Each structure stands twice: as structure tokens, then as C-alpha cells.
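quick one before i forget lol
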Amino acid sequence: MMKSMNVLRRGFLAGSIALMGVGLSPVAASADELAEIKERGVLKIAMSGQYPPFNFVNEENKVVGFDPAIGTEIAKRMGLEVEIVTTAWDGIIGGLLANKYDAVVGSMTITEERDKVIDFVGPYYRTKRAIFTKSGSDLTDVSQLDDVKVGVTLGETHEEWARAQGYNVSTYKGLPELLLELNNGRVDAIVNDSIPVMLAMKAGQYELAVIDDPSAEPFGAGIAIREGNPDLSAAMQEALDAMMEDGTYLSIAEEWVGGDIR
């Protein structure tokens, strides 16, 4: 699975990190950070808050969804409270390297290029790239995307893929805005992970059609942490594995995405 993922080029990742004023070399930790986190008693996790049903802000102004539920359960099993930080996706790796939070639990695709500057726990779910257009559109094949406007979320692997195809790309903050722009006709197609859009369609929120993408292959989403933290990585992986074994993971997945997505 790891070898079949869509890979970000270093230049694209460097641009995202540079926006945060951080170079490509990760911030060196003097020691594994697990002991410091344990002493603090709080695990700080980051996500965009713009990716329903994986993470989003509800009517009570609380960040909810699959990702915060997974992150909260991992923290609980480590004997920690959790603090959720929302931040723009295109700068989220830079924020991690700048020590603004301890981990990113935000549906981040594991790629070889990202793995050069951060470490991953997981994967904790799997999905694949998908292309959507409005129901009834004349767009039925990827070959037609050369002449239309394609929407993507800024900083996602899908943006890099769409630009590599030479498409006319428009970028947005997150999935809600992306779907709204497609629904209003300001873009002709969008590229996104398949699961959240399919769920929005199933819920009757949008009438969309899938454009077949034969080159799309499954990939894993992982929890990002800074390099040089084997104890933290092991503790988080142990908690994640235990959740998957005792049924807690499946319960969370069924609540937020309607089934097992491991």
C-alpha cells in the first residue's frame, strides 16, 4: 500500500513549509518528546477543521468527526487529555515542525516525500483519489479535464497531482468550500479523497457524478509527528493497534463514516 501512493514532489512540500518560515530540515528534538507530553498531561493534535466527516466544526463551535475521535481516544489510552488545534492545511506540516502541536491527526496522506521530513503513525485508514462533477455534466472521462476548471484543496496531494496533469486548477481552503464551488458551477470538477464526497452524496447533500480515474490507487492516511520520537511513535501506535483490536476503532468509524475503513 505504501509503495502505491501518490507522491508529492519536494518542491511542493518545501513551498508549504516555507510559508511557515521553516526550512526542509525538521526541528531537531533534544530527546524523545513523550516524557514532556506526559508531564504536561495534554496531547496537542492539529487538523484543518474543514474536512467533514473526518474533521469539522459543528453548530456548537466544537471540532468533531472521525479524526478528533481517533486522536482523543489515542490520547486517553496514553493517559492524556487532548487539545485540538485547527490550522490551514497548506501550513500544517510547517506548524508541526515549528512545535505548535505534537501531532497532526487530520487525514494526511502518507507519502515518501512527507516521510523525509516527518514520521507517521499508522496508517489509520485507507482511501483513494476520486474525481467528481455535477450530475448531468458532459464530463465523463479524465481526458476531458484538460479544457475545464478543476477544484482542489490547497496543499493536498491532489493539488500536486492535478497540476502535474496540466489542469487549470483553482484552490480552496477545504472540502465544504470545494463542494460549494462545484455546486455553484465555479469549477467543473473537483479532485478529493473518495470517502467524504461519497458520504456527502449518500446523505443527499449533493447530486454528483464520478469521473472514472483508472490511475487512482488506494493510499493510507497517517498521524504525523516530528522525527526523532520513537517512544512517542510507539506509544501512539500501541494505542491505535489496541483500538483496532478491541472494537473501539470500528465503533468510531461506524459513527462517523458508516463502516470500517482500515
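fyi Residues 13 and 192 are 18 Å apart (CA to CA).
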